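Lab meeting minutes (informal)
Scribe: AK
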Amino acid sequence: MTNEEFPQLFQFLGAYFHEDWMSEFDVADDVVKSFIADSEACVILDVIKETEAVSALDLTEEHMRDFLLIEMGCSYCYWHEWQDGVTWLKHVLVMLRQPPQKLISEY
């Protein structure tokens, strides 16, 4: 798997969960909300599709962690808050699927 197979997910994780994301946001959910507020619906849908595809790969946690951190450029250590990478990605999917008005008003 490469970042070329999941270009929108790569852009989302690498650009929004960059190494300094904690200086801009208090919690990881705020990063996702910011992405939603900044993005067009078609981009959000692409990220949803690519996230679903990654979740369905049935990777071991070690491989999932390497994929998200190394290949996708994500600098969020999700394992401090979530059981595993798939659980965190499922949470992100729930957020991405929420009606935009609700997320924008919360952000």
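Next up, CB showed the second protein from the same session:
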Amino acid sequence: MNKRLFGTDGLRGQVNIFPMTADIALRLGLASGHVFRNGKQKHRVVIGKDTRLSGYVFETALTSGLCAMGMDVFQVGPLPTPAISFLTQNMRADLGIVISASHNPFIDNGIKFFSKDGFKLADEVEDRISEMVLSKDQQWDYPEPEKVGRAYKIEDARGRYIVYLKYSIPQQMNFKGLKIVLDCANGAGYSLGHLFEELGASVVTIGDKPNGLNINDKCGSLYPEVVGRKVVEEKADIGLALDGDGDRLIVVDERGTILDGDQIMAMCAQNMMERDELAGNMLVSTVMSNMALEVFMKERGGTLLRTPVGDRYVVEAMRAKGAVFGGEQSGHLIFRKYSTTGDGLLAALQLLRILVEKDKPLSELSGLLIPFPQVLKNVHVERKIPFGEVPIVQESVEKVEKALAGKGRVLLRYSGTEPVARVMVEGEDRDKVEMYTDELAEILEKNLC
């Protein structure tokens, strides 16, 4: 059995298969309650989830374990991951828990934790919880019967989150005259479209009818072409596509052209530099960000600091370097002035603010960054052997890098949540980039399966 439950973004897997089982969730509640119950007074835990059918299973199991350990549990229902981060701080809770598998299909689910300051738990804390959950000899330090916890339903959590989001743009600003298409991925953000309506925009909402089984199903940030078609059909100014837990954003301009996180980061970073709000003129992103973003920042006197893949690593680097803006190509965008984690709705508000201030169509503003051709391919693997320990893989990468002649790059990495290796190649010639990607993917399939 794996001695570490947690990947780069909590634990995740198929429902009713280890580790996503009710008994593991119960033990997670017991273990996290044990770790975060400091002192004799009652402690608070905020639990939120997305719209997956299995959310009821894990919400109940976690609540049982936490209450048994003397923790009071505040259930806020389906809300985006960043809302739970905010509410954990806002409600002075000791711990926040999100039940979600983000962009994965409904058959999967996951559990991730936030500390009282709204940041994801440090590895050593996760390791301590993992050890307790997996230990066959673990003895639980149960409190006296009169000191077990209570569970509460918080009915106004959605309203608190919306008010908080509104404070991220100037009070006098409104979005009157803008028409927005919002795709909620049938996920945690399905009921939040009126945020933009309250700010004056005309909103066409899709992916807002979750049934427990249709989250991320041909909608949301994984299928931005859906919102793109709707934008063209409705003659809208912008399309916004969230993922299942609402922490990432992919954008479509008024022509239906899809913009990824790199292009959004370029627009926001330049705007922040113009307003002298980008500390150190530093943007933090991951190794997956396009080389064009690095060139973009350098040409403007700024720097791009790269991290491993995962928004938690982006946030860690931002905190260490004092940076105020960072994100991922996949659409996680972190505005540290307002949030401790990626937030799709917050990012949308910041982008809409720029549209209003510049009074230009998104297609014109997005021309700031023209990405280099980049191809990403996923390969199912049975073994996650370090790539450097497989000679033929190392030799093949070096061969491709030599062929790119310094005008491109190769990146191989394993998914932190799936049995998948990701192959990425960038370069000036798309045909060659696709060919190199296919070649490397084939080599991984032959040697790691």
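CB comment: The radius of gyration is 22 Å.
No objections, moving on.
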